[in-house]
Amino acid sequence: MNIVIAISSHFKDAYEPNALVKALNQKGHTAYLWYVDHTKILFNKDEIILETNVSLEPDKWDVLFIREIFGINMTTLQLVSYLVKRYSNLYVIDNGLLSDYSLIGKVRQLLFLKNAGIPVPKSMYFISTKELANSYHLISKQLHLPFLLKHTGAGKGGMIFKITDQDEFYDVINTYTEGIDSKKSCKFYAQEFLKLKADYRVLVIEENVLGAMQRIPAEGEFRANFSLGGKVKPAVLTPTLKELAIKAKKVLGYDFGGVDIVIDEKGNHYVLEVNRIPGFEGFSKAFNIDVASIFAKYIERKVKGDKAI
Fold first, then answer.
1. Residues with Cβ < 8 Å from 51, sequence gap 6 or more?
2. pTM of the model
3. When you count CB atoms within 10 A of the terminal residue's CB, does the N or C end of the chain come out lower?
4. Phi then psi for 261, rounded to 5 degrees?
């Protein structure tokens, strides 16, 4: 099969898409990375012509697997929707992206998770940046200091700020938004800063929970992401971790996901988020397993319609 993996060019050197290409090629397929942000569209008289970095024309693509397209605007999703309608034999694996793009947003995830009875950290969201900017005292009263400001669309631990005073709060708003008087949709939400006993990433593919890894922050860092220099080690997959991970993934309608779960000093479990396209470099190293090959088998099963693990 010709399998095309959609990413933005920002991720062309990332471990995961390149590991997937290697694993798929080893299985006898021909895999390509499609840099969606390098695509040119020609609206010709009788047809639409796409120019991509992939050597094959889209009518020769058998499978399209959508991975890292963060930061790409809605035109990208419309382009993928066009490909689905234009090429009826193209099999698309998007892990729920086209059916509900909004679930990538962390606030919407919190709404769905909380509504399903899944424990999440105490959080606050304001519709406009202006409302957020006017609510420092309310946030500090509800969440206490320090608290976190998290970007609604960032990944891999980026754009998360620990706020210890009012000056830091307004520095973030003025630097990373349109300013305190902006009535545009708010890019940040506030969340309580939990004193953690442990931080876990649980990787789930369909009904198969591959395991849990504990994430340990680098010295001087409060975020435990592997991409930020954090260390990882295999952890015991407790019944609670397994149950929460499977339930959280299902609530969001995902086939697979990286579920971030933390345990505070009192032993309370919280789901932080479910990564629709999880990184797995750290997981592969922690467990010494070929996660890319497992994903390649998943792609084969999807195309064949075999749901068995």
1. 39, 40, 41, 42
2. 0.88
3. C
4. -125, 135
- Residue 68 dihedral angles phi and psi, to the nearest 5°: -75, 100
**Which of 203, 200, 202, 228 has its CA nearest to residue 215?**
200
**CA–CA separation, 185 and 181 (whole Å):** 12
- Using alpha carbons, select from 61, 188, 196 the residue that is nearest to residue 127: 188
3-class secondary-structure state, position 94: coil
Structure tokens at 261: 């779960």
- Domains in the chain (CATH in brackets) are 2-94 (3.40.50.20), 122-192 (3.30.1490.20), 196-290 (3.30.470.20)
Sequence-ordered list of residues with C-beta below 8 angstroms from that of 43, at least 6 positions apart, any chain? none
- What DSSP element (H or E) covers 208? strand 208-216
